[in-house]
Amino acid sequence: MRGWKGAPGATHLFEEPGALETVAHLAGEWFTTHLHDRGWA
Predict the structure, then answer these.
(1) pTM (2 decimals)?
(2) Furthest CA-CA distance within the chain
(3) Rounded to the nearest 10 degrees, how much is the dihedral formed by the CA atoms of 11, 14, 18, 22?
(4) How far is 15 from 24, CA to CA, in rounded Å?
């Protein structure tokens, strides 16, 4: 996977402190980048 990022130490439930926030931030960056590239943002 090109440019794969994750939340180190996070489990599938994101119960660890800061894990959900990290994933939400990364997802937001991904959507902003990819939607902008397609002219949707």
Answers:
(1) 0.68
(2) 35
(3) 90
(4) 13
